[in-house]
Amino acid sequence: MQIKLNHKIIKEALTIRAVEEKFLSLFSEGKLNGTVHTCVGQEFSAIAFAGQLKKKDFIFSNHRCHGHYIAFTGDVRGLLAELLGKVSGTCGGIGSSQHLCKDNFYSNGIQGGIVPVAAGYALGNKLKENGAIGIVFIGDGTLGEGALYETLNIISKWEIPLLIVCENNFYAQSTPQSVNLAGNIMARPEAFGIRTFKGNTDDPELLMKDAKEAIDYVRNETKPSFFLVDTYRLNPHSKGDDDRDIEEIKKYRESDFLETFSRDHSSYFNNYLEVINKQVDDMVNAILKEGELPIEAYYHTVTQTNSEEWTKIEPVNKRQVELLNTFFKEEIIASKNLVFLGEDVLSPYGGAFKVAKDLSVMSPTRVFSTPISEAAIMGISNGLALNGFKPFAEIMFGDFTTLAFDQIINHAAKFHHMYNKLVTCPVVVRTPMGGRRGYGPTHSQTLDKFLIGIDNTKTVAINTFFDPAIVYRSILKEEHPVIVIENKTDYGKKILHHPARNFINEMNGDEYPVVRIRPAVSLPTITIVAYGGMADLVNSILADIFSSTDHKPELIVPSLISHLPIDTIITSVTQTEKLLVIEEGSAYAGIGSELISAVIEKIDFKIKVKRIAAYPVPIPSVKTLEHIVLPDRERIIQEIKEHFN
Q: Vertex 385, ends 380 and 391: CA angle to 5°?
């Protein structure tokens, strides 16, 4: 075989292969954590693309990321230490094989999920006008993921400078491509008007040339492209799960470039490999003597305290939606890193509930009206957040957050810790929850209980007792994800629009204030906790509760529902010895359950407790049934009578 390829590139490929083979050996010895996905046979794809980027560029990779990482960063030692679980590893041993982060390189093992994140990161570079581009590596198995197609549509329409490299090794784990994949791979990006390229790892020199052409196209034209690389992995999907035909593997191994090079140029091959193997062995021997990350460096308990300073709340003669719109108008001008995304948010429409009214007129380059693509909306927002922006993603209805859960849970919430605190992801998700508008089962749910337990994520519920800008100013300072629940029936209400007679309305000094509505001239005899839209309803019947049950209610309204104000509530129940939690979601495993458990854990006296919640069925559209399914005045008063008398 006549070798035209630069020997430096051959040595890079041999280094990647040597490291991968070492990982398999270490796995067999029980020295690795978890599993390992090697790219043996696919090395030249990594070098052709990752190896030809500029330092200012970025890469998002997948579970089979080691070759991409080495080709882009050159950090062999950090990779070895990471998989060996040592503190000197790229991410301190936390991420191991699939979750790497260094110098604009990111990887995650969720198939398809990295594509919209990469698109958001690339969009950030376009907004910065810094000339940087990015590559996201996917496999042919990822072609089954819907987030990919949502993203293809958006990057084409918005002309986002992102190169998608599809490494087609013809198998999704152990399943042949012919079983799972319909149609033509190239037809997929072409359907979105995206320029396509194709190559293979059999001819590394030509692949290097074609890859450079694709990279230059994305950079010079500021447009996306798609490159299909036909390749073949010579080793199993991970360690030993390989059902492929032995003769097929043998055929590909014999034609593999490095295998051919080893036969035709054995002297060069052996000399190169001897040096590389010694370097790898020496690094491994040194790394094995190192320590692992202590728990104190990874996690520590955060003690939450609530302010005991209370100030009187005054009514504001503006509707909640007007105040929200005013906040975003001010911040879209004042904060150059704020980006607003969502469906139908462009003027003159301004979003389904008009929170975005006129924003796109004031800042047309940082307000993006998206297709109906919740996974991509959230993923692009995550990428923008990683790239230094403060994105506000509007999900039109709270019910639709389920379509974005992967991006919230497996990406936004995990980036900071799984990358050993090297990055933050200050993304904000806004969404209207709740019923009472007759929208029916898929547009009326209250899904708050699914959101409050997401690690490293704050969930906030605004209310009608104070200007929501107070909450949003605190959110602007957050470094980690925040989910904001806006009750759709509250949008049209003015702040403190019906203060209860003979009650004092006050809020404390927390960044996410707690509201307390207490009897004006006597001590309370029952503590009620409600939040969001339900708090407004409860506030409207406080006098009725007193007149119908003889209980004097004190209403506590938290804003930060993922970190409930337990001490404030305990102060109240110490006086009342009765605790009622009312929520619009269903009761089982709900916010009331968490709140009551937390209170009981901290007190040493008996109290009576009760939860009132929606019945555990979809919210019906017909209003007579909707009012029955959701807690209303009559049910609340009746259940207080039955349980607390």
A: 75
